[in-house]
């Protein structure tokens, strides 16, 4: 699912935005015909995951409307990640997904694996050029590598201008092939999490652990399609509408997530590795408007997504840029997101019930709402370069979706809120 805003659409949108907003389309271009954008992002969840990300993109102008786009992303994540298991009144012990080592969770706490860490490097490249009068094409590829995940992909797009270049219709296709190689291997669906303390020696434990592994790695293939329409309504209003389709086939279970089996009193009897379907089809529609309003610039968008996992989501995002001096501007942002739960999402399994075909207690596919409140501060520097700072507060609110909490589960937090702070520094030159 690596399809991004395709280069030809971005170029058309940026050019039209410059016309609408009265900005100099050549600002920030130095080093001959190259333009660079860089950013450093820091993300920190309270008592959970922390992340740092560095981004560098470059766009080279080779004349005759031919452009080379390059991108590099390096990010590192560390901290504690929710396993999906439920909290309990007493101490709980867990084996790490690799089968090596264990950790304990205090009474009443949400089970978190506090050794979560990873580093990812992603490379992107694309070339765009005219094909014929009013036609543009682009093509490219990407590579993303982390400790246990490799993603390779290609993409291409075509765009046609109409109405004196005030209307652009575009279509893009992308394909990616991902290889997942979790340490310890891929667990069988609903395989039990084993504890070393339940076995007489290391050899018998290792033999039992190996029996819960199905294979060393697995793959996933994804095809994405994007249909887009960009329209200049008038000199102060730019509108864009997209429809996207994503079809994934392969391993989509999270190899690190568990689902707890509880008795009628809510006490955990065992923890099982989750199991998800191996196919997913997603649809989404996206509508964006950029307006010039008396010296300020409003950017408002809405996205609706639905898939065959019965997960539906709504995203509304508003950014409003105001000049505060001749050189500085401020851009407040409010983003709201709401989703329903996937059809196989279950916060826990009842011991008295038979196992379903699929189940996951991962709160990320459960019912939730989130909001992001932030602001960006930017300034123009010499030679048209731009420096900006962004700070934002993110609040995630998982919600109950019809599952009653039996016994002791009524006294623990099954839907713990997640709060995060994001800070970003960007420089364009």
The top level CATH class name: Mainly Beta
Q: What order do the SSEs take from the amino end to the carboxyl end, as H and E?
A: HEEEEEEEEEEEHEEEEEEEEEEEEE
Radius of gyration (CA) equals 24 Å
CATH superfamily: monomeric porin ompg
The tally of structural domains comes to: 1
CATH topology: Porin
General form: elongated
Content of β-strand: over 45%
Helix share bin: under 10%
Terminal CA distance reads: 30 Å
Strand order of the main beta sheet, please? 2-3-4-7-8-9-10-13-14-17-18-19-20-22-23-24
Architecture per CATH nomenclature, i.e. the level-2 architecture: Beta Barrel
Organism: Rheinheimera baltica
Pfam family, one: DUF3570
Protein name: DUF3570 domain-containing protein
InterPro entries: DUF3570
Provide a descriptive summary of the structure in words.
The protein has a single domain, classed as Beta Barrel (Porin), CATH 2.40.160.40. The chain has 429 residues and is mainly beta. It has a 16-stranded antiparallel barrel. A three-stranded mixed beta sheet has the order 16-15-21, with no helix packed on it. It has a two-stranded antiparallel ribbon with strand order 5-6. The chain starts with 6 loop residues before the first helix and ends with a strand. The radius of gyration is 24 Å and the shape is elongated. Helices cover 6% and strands 58% of the residues.
Question: Topology, please?
Answer:
Blueprint: H1 7-21, E1 29-30, E2 34-45, E3 50-61, E4 67-82, E5 92-95, E6 102-105, E7 112-132, E8 135-146, E9 149-162, E10 167-180, E11 186-187, H2 202-211, E12 213-215, E13 218-234, E14 237-250, E15 258-262, E16 268-273, E17 279-293, E18 296-307, E19 312-323, E20 328-339, E21 349-350, E22 368-380, E23 386-398, E24 418-428
Parallel strand pairs: 15-21
Antiparallel strand pairs: 1-2, 2-3, 2-24, 3-4, 4-7, 5-6, 7-8, 8-9, 9-10, 10-13, 11-12, 13-14, 14-17, 15-16, 17-18, 18-19, 19-20, 20-22, 22-23, 23-24
């Amino acid at each position: 699912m690596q399809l991004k805003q395709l280069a030809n659409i971005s170029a058309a949108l940026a050019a039209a935005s410059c016309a609408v907003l009265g900005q100099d389309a050549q600002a920030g271009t130095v080093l001959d015909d190259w333009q660079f954008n860089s950013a450093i992002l820091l993300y920190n969840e309270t008592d959970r995951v922390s992340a740092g990300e560095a981004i560098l993109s470059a766009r080279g102008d080779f004349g005759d409307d031919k452009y080379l786009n390059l991108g590099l992303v390096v990010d590192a994540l560390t901290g504690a990640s929710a396993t999906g298991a439920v909290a309990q009144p007493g101490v709980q012990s867990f084996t790490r997904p690799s089968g090596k080592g264990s950790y304990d969770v205090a009474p009443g706490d949400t089970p978190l694996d506090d050794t979560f860490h990873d580093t990812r490097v992603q490379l992107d490249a694309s070339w765009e050029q005219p094909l014929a009068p009013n036609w543009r094409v682009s093509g490219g590829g990407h590579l993303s590598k982390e400790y246990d995940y490799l993603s390779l992909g290609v993409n291409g797009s075509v765009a046609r201008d109409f109405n004196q270049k005030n209307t652009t219709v575009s279509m893009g296709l992308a394909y990616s092939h991902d290889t997942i190689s979790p340490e310890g291997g891929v667990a069988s669906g609903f395989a039990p999490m084993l504890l070393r303390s339940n076995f007489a020696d290391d050899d018998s434990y290792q033999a039992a652990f190996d029996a819960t592994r199905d294979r060393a790695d697995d793959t996933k293939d994804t095809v994405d399609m994007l249909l887009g329409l960009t329209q200049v309504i008038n000199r102060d209003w730019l509108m864009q509408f997209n429809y996207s389709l994503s079809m994934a086939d392969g391993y989509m279970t999270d190899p690190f997530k568990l689902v707890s089996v509880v008795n009628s009193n809510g006490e955990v009897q065992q923890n099982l590795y989750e199991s998800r379907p191996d196919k997913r089809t997603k649809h989404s529609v996206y509508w964006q408007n950029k307006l010039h309003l008396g010296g300020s610039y409003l950017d408002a968008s809405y996205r609706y997504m639905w898939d065959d996992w019965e997960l539906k989501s709504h995203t509304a995002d508003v950014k409003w840029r105001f000049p505060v001096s001749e050189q500085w501007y401020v851009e407040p942002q409010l983003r709201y997101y709401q989703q329903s739960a996937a059809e196989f999402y279950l916060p826990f399994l009842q011991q008295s019930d038979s196992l379903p075909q699929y189940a996951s207690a991962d709160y990320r596919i459960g019912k939730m709402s989130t909001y992001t409140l932030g602001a960006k501060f930017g300034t123009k520097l010499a030679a048209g370069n731009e420096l900006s700072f962004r700070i934002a507060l993110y609040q995630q609110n998982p919600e109950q979706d019809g599952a009653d909490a039996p016994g002791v589960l009524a006294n623990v937090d099954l839907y713990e809120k997640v709060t995060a702070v994001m800070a970003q520094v960007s420089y364009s030159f």
